[in-house]
Amino acid sequence: MPSLSIVEEIEDAKARQSPGAGLAAGTMGGVELMAQSTAGIAPSAVMVSGATLVAASAGPGTLYSYAVSLGVLLLVGWCVAKVAKLRPGEDLLSHITAAFGRAVGFVGSMGLAFGYLLIAVGCVAQFSQYTKPLFGVSPPASAGAPGTALGFTLVLEIVCVVGAAFMMIRGVRVSAWTGVVLEVLSIGAIMLVLVLALARHGFSAAPLMPTGVTLGQVVGGMVLAILGFVGFESAACLSVEAKDPQRTIPRAVFGSALLAGALYLCSSYAQIVSFDGAEKLAADATPLNTLADGLGQHWLALAVDLGAVASNFACVTGSLTAASRVLHAMGESKLVHARIGVAHPKRQTPHIAILMLSAVALAIAVGMAMGGINELDVYSYSGTLGTFGYMVAYILMGLGVPVLLRKLAPQAGVALAAVIGGAVALCLAYVFYRNVYPVPAWPTSIMPWLFVGVLLIAAAWYAAGPARRDRAGEGVPVLAESAG
């Protein structure tokens, strides 16, 4: 297979790491990678509150927002799978760097890590929201209402993050299996509520053929719809730890996206029908609890809450696991401090990156709670902002696939890769544009610009790298800039 100079440099950088600093290479099978991607998505957590948030923007076009988002992200999955087959054992940072060079790879990977971090923040808040009813504490009844029981909220968020950090440091297989078991239990409780609700209200074709839906509504709902899928590519961040990554990573990526898409479409349809319209659904912060109570089965509402708690905990572990692998790769490549690229000598997990990310996620979640922002709004705001980070990484993957194919395997269909990758980039760029213009309501209006600021800070950090290394006496970076 033809090789790139940048690929060789990355290989050399990894080879220079001490034996005790490595991850648990080749230990995760296909089922465990699927578990990681599923935990990163946390489909049951999205089923609990995602339809409410999407319906607030998309209205009767909620199902269309989910369907189009699924189509776009399956194309992203095709790009990830294509590159994973050509470059087994490499992570997303390596793929983007190999296609566009070190600078773009750094900025794009920072965007991805930022996305994982913000999704974890939202799930920490949701963990608190759905734990409260189990202790008899009522969460806010709707979005925009002030938070409740601040002291209890802070305790719950600390418990969530500390527990997740402990699981992640213990081992990637432990956290992955914990996540998938919790997800199965959560989805079971939610599906029971939805089936019973549909049995009471009956089926309707209205959500499938809504009237008065505009393109702006569908696209406006896509950011939060995409939020429901992000993390499906997280198996690719564990390429070093994967067995047979050419086969297992594509299967995990596609399988988790298809599973999540099917669950979201069914869940959104059932909730819209049961609430007699997307508008009524959008006004309820805890729609599944409302449906369960409406069935006269309060125990089912508590089961949904318990399932949501489990799913959000799994999402925190899945998201921060993937983010820690991104930072670990950056540390190995000297894009950030080299200590971040060191793994635990016994557990073979990037414990420094995990602890750092966990502390930041907890600080953000606690800060927003102390600011009086309720948990559903924390999830909406952090999720919207974090989704932009994923979108940048997805756009770069789409644009990078034909570049890598042309260099590594020109016989593998560069034209098709250019069409699919270009479609991914155009679709996601248009979604970003429609979240800038027409100008949305506050505070959504500032979200894109906050994210642009994050990318500019990342670019400035990279540009200042040589001077920073000179001051630290580190000399020449491990990875040289590649022209090819």
Structural account:
This protein is an all-alpha fold and 484 residues long. It is built from 18 helices and no strands. The chain has helices at 5-15, 30-41, 43-58, 62-86, 92-100, 102-131, 150-170, 172-201, 215-227, 245-274, 278-282, 287-294, 298-332, 351-370, 375-408, 414-434, 447-463, 465-472. The protein is globular, with a radius of gyration of 22 Å. The two termini are 16 Å apart. Residues 1-21 and 475-484 have low confidence and may be disordered.
Describe the secondary-structure layout.
Elements: H1 5-15, H2 30-41, H3 43-58, H4 62-86, H5 92-100, H6 102-131, H7 150-170, H8 172-201, H9 215-227, H10 245-274, H11 278-282, H12 287-294, H13 298-332, H14 351-370, H15 375-408, H16 414-434, H17 447-463, H18 465-472
Helix pairs in contact: 2-8, 2-10, 2-13, 3-8, 3-9, 3-10, 3-13, 4-9, 4-10, 4-15, 4-16, 5-6, 5-15, 6-7, 6-13, 6-14, 6-15, 6-17, 7-13, 7-14, 8-10, 8-13, 9-15, 9-16, 12-13, 13-14, 15-16, 15-17
Structural class: mainly alpha
What is the CA–CA distance across the termini? 16 Å
Q: Using the CA coordinates, give the radius of gyration.
A: 22 Å
Mean pLDDT: 81
**Which geometry do the CA atoms define?**
globular
Q: Secondary-structure element sequence?
A: HHHHHHHHHHHHHHHHHH
Strand content: under 5%
Task: Give the low-pLDDT segments.
Answer: 1-21, 475-484
Largest sheet: none
Helix count? 18
Helix content: over 70%
Strand element count: 0
